[in-house]
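ugh ok so i messed up the first submission bc i forgot one of the chains. this is the corrected input, ALL of the components this time, i swear. 412 residues overall. if the numbers dont match what u have on ur side tell me asap before i send this to the collaborators (the ones from the other lab, u know who)
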Amino acid sequence: MTGKRKVGNLLALAVLSYLSQQPMHPYELGRSLREHGDDRSIKFNHGSLYMVIGQLARAGFITEQETSRAGQRPERTVYALTDAGRAELRDWLAELVEQPQHEYPAFVAALSLIGALPPRQVLDLLRARLGHLARQQAEARGLVDTSLAEGVPGLFLIEEEYRLAVLDAESAFTSRVIQRITDPATDWTGPWGAFHGENTPTTQGE
Amino acid sequence: MTGKRKVGNLLALAVLSYLSQQPMHPYELGRSLREHGDDRSIKFNHGSLYMVIGQLARAGFITEQETSRAGQRPERTVYALTDAGRAELRDWLAELVEQPQHEYPAFVAALSLIGALPPRQVLDLLRARLGHLARQQAEARGLVDTSLAEGVPGLFLIEEEYRLAVLDAESAFTSRVIQRITDPATDWTGPWGAFHGENTPTTQGE
DNA sequence: GGGGTCATGTAATAGGTTACATGATTCT
DNA sequence: AGAATCATGTAACCTATTACATGACCCC
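and heres the new structure output, hopefully the right one now
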């Protein structure tokens, strides 16, 4: 089903998508990406772009259309989408929309090893995290609102709204964990704190 | 602040954490990782493990403690955490808990390019996604519940609960988007559908 | 006692990031 | 005209994944 794409880097998906609108040369692709702010959603750096374009060409998804030279600038190779490329774009995009991918966010890794830190410190860290999350939420919210006010169609802000939704969930989760750690009714902090040599404030005197 | 770790792979964080409990040889590390199910949270494969261990050793975070040979098995090199390693573990973990990292999930990339698919198809795909999400939620929920029933301390399930929280948010978001696409009161599908040659079911007759 | 799979590691390859290079524009 | 920045690309260097190797143990 998900039989390993010939080119797996998501930057390639963006390249296919942009080329589906018109042929372009690599630098122009990069500029468009950044102007549309798609570099917030897709990891972009200059070197990877050329690499990905090479891979796509070898895979037959794009072809050199013309290689013009204007003035004394270095040659610019203009690439165009092939039929295979158009098919790959549709198929790949559809797959990503339909099937949640198993990914490995750093926070999940940290949570799975959190026992290595003492609960007291974790508490502080989580409170600080709440602050960072709030800032990011405000930022994203602001971006969405001003863009909408400027008349940008909602479709172009959908990924920012997704981020907002996840940020909300993260904040709520973080608050819940803070609750649990501080709530003496849970046996959470007991063995955990003891292991780190912290005294449990709940059980004083037997 | 976040000044580029000497070893960036999160698998290294797990190695540091496991070695903080006792010295081990590489294979044992891998086995423990899998037994604790931490390979659900941290991308693990055999080759990367040895690579990461090499990096950690070069960086001075771990050292070969002894290199014993039992019977005719290949030599097993046992590694132990150094003081620098212990510090790195604490510092890295704290950073990840405190500061949300900017990451690039595939779904965000897909959303940012979603306009390349016709709204009609996106609708179907999102509905299918809802089903996948529901399955994953059920699975995670089941895992948490049975583990708790078996007496596993809640602390060890925290990352699974985080996943659940995010899955909930994703489902809700997906439903909202489906609403918006189908709701004729939004101007969402108008230009988008038109671009793909779909007729807008909302505006029939001027 | 032969076939699987466990245990253990190395080597080859592919992927991705950073650094380097260089002519053209623009600004002051 | 010199400095800064744009435009454009290549090369060197890491990182990560896959493939290869091989002796030991276990099952039938």
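quick check: Helices of chain B lie at 10-19, 26-35, 46-59, 83-98, 106-112, 119-149, 158-182, 189-195. that seems consistent at least. Residues 8-9, 45-48, 51-52, 55, 71-74 of chain B lie near DNA strand D (CB under 10 Å from a C1').
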